Amino acid sequence: SLSHFIKILARKYQRAKSTIYLIGSSAHVLEGMPDWSQKAAEKQLKNLGVKIKLQKRINLIDEKLIHTEDG
Fold this sequence. Notes:
Blueprint: H1 2-12, E1 21-24, H2 35-47, E2 51-54, E3 58-61, E4 66-68
């Protein structure tokens, strides 16, 4: 599960707390799927502590940061 994966990453990178971001250029999670499934997926992700950033395009990924069009 996602929560288990977060714990593995936290141990690997020696961080007590980690944050997962879902960054997407579409307007909705699971774009193209039925509205009910989009809402359910977004709710579950948020309940797991995932930060959702939609309508964002990634310009650059370096060793420390992910850069989007708006910063």
